[in-house]
Amino acid sequence: MRVGIIGATGYGGAELLRLLNQHPHVQDIILYSSSKEGMNIQESYPHLSEIYNKELQSINIDSVKEEVDTVFLATPPGVSSEWAGKIAEAGCQVIDLSGDLRLEDPSVYEAWYKREAAPSSLIQKAVYGLPEWNREWIKSAKIISNPGCYPTATLLGLAPLVKSDLIEFDSIIVDAKSGTSGAGRSPSAITHYSEMNENFKIYQINQHKHVPEIEQLLHQWNKKVSTITFQPHLVPMVRGIMATIYVKARKKTTEQELRELYREAYRHERFVRVRPDGQYPATKEVYGSNYCDIGLTYDERTGRITIVSVIDNVVKGASGQAIQNFNIMNGFEEGTGLKLVPMYP
Ligand SMILES: NC(=O)C1=CN([C@@H]2O[C@H](COP(=O)(O)OP(=O)(O)OC[C@H]3O[C@@H](n4cnc5c(N)ncnc54)[C@H](OP(=O)(O)O)[C@@H]3O)[C@@H](O)[C@H]2O)C=CC1
Ligand SMILES: CC(=O)N[C@@H](CCC(=O)OP(=O)(O)O)C(=O)O
After folding, report:
1. Which of 11, 50, 280, 297 holds its CA 20 to 30 A away from the CA of 104?
2. The Semialdehyde dehydrogenase NAD-binding domain covers which part of the protein (predicted)?
């Protein structure tokens, strides 16, 4: 297949290129840029020297239509609402890494993103690309809205419990930590070295745009869930997300019962690994891979369940999951191009 990446000069785009470059069903990758047309991608990314030697193309719907079968939009919010519809109408598959098409209610998008929402007709066509729980819809989708990085870790960590009726549904607290690559390639006063090295910050308290995305899915899975508490933090590392999730059990349970619930839920999922008793995952254990690793415990004293869910934000939290969706949409074996052993140490 021939694939295009819009936003190839960003971190999500570069990771798509790294992974698609060794995908056996991808014959050609065209890179599009809104600001660096005519430049070679190696000028932006010297690590691609002698591996990928191509010029960035301007984004033009007629050439996109001629050149590619699938377009990955690795662009900031606001861009996909402009391009996804046109590209789909031109007959290409669209996989959007941004948050533009994830929220079903445009007024919720406008309240949290503080910008105009995409047209409802476009949002309705997009399938939320969380393969472990939405695989059947992804198979026939033409437009995928790829989940956010924090929602991926949080939803995979919460799904078995929320679907089980074992918990107090108003008790969910998510304490999430991310590396700085989650903020993209452009440096900012929040993420640059002097600000982040030897530092640990909470940000966007009670107002992160991933709150409604997480709540939307949890509510779809169980109508008893309405709101959650979610607080994101930045940690001085490049890749990785850890979501530590606290939930009150509705009645007495055991760690063994909970682990069995998770093992059963993810028995056939190649990218979700449930840790054995007493093991809790660290971000480095999924670094550079498409895995989501989950550990859990039950505190008999407080009746609280703690779930620890880790991903690499650029892989399972963005580009790897996008390729997992690409594989499912096209009937390829789901792990194609994603058989990545985490880099350790
Ligand atoms: N980084 C991460 O861990 C994750 C990112 N995401 C989402 O994926 C998307 C990409 O993120 P990321 O790669 O980190 O961001 P970056 O800021 O690193 O890259 C975004 C790219 O978008 C392109 N771009 C900017 N403005 C426009 C425009 N008006 N029209 C077309 N292209 C534009 C730019 O490329 P150029 O100037 O060459 O056009 C830029 O390099 C975002 O929506 C992000 O929220 C989702 C999950 C995780
Ligand atoms: C560390 C950091 O800044 N992370 C980003 C999340 C990136 C992401 O997943 O954003 P989208 O929903 O737009 O895809 C943030 O908090 O906004």
Report:
1. 11
2. 2-141
Catalytic residue chosen out of the listed positions 17, 31, 48, 149: 149
Residues of the chain with CATH 3.30.360.10: 150-313
Q: Is the pTM here over 0.95, yes or no? A: yes
Please name the residue ranges forming H helices in the chain: 11-20, 41-44, 61-67, 80-89, 106-113, 120-125, 131-139, 149-162, 193-196, 210-221, 255-265, 320-329
pLDDT 10s digits, 69-83: 999 999 999 999 999
β-partners of residue 298 are 305
- The complex's ipTM? 0.97
Peptide bond into 281 cis (omega under 30): no
| CATH 3.40.50.2300 holds for 150-313 | no
Q: How many CB atoms lie under 10 A from the CB of residue 52?
A: 17
CATH 3.40.50.2300 fits 2-146, yes or no: no
Which pLDDT tens digit goes with each residue over 186-218?
999 999 999 999 999 999 999 999 999 999 999
* DSSP state for residue 143 in the 8-state scheme: E
- Are 297 and 161 contacting, i.e. CB atoms less than 8 angstroms apart? no
Catalytic residue check, 92: no
Write out the residue limits of the CATH 3.40.50.720 domain(s) in the chain.
2-146
CA of 66 to the centre of ligand 2 (A): 32
Q: Which ligand is nearest to the CA of 230?
A: 2
Got the DSSP string for 78-107? TTHHHHHHHHHHTT-EEEE-SSTTT-S-HH
Residue 338 near residue 324 (C-beta atoms within 8 A): yes
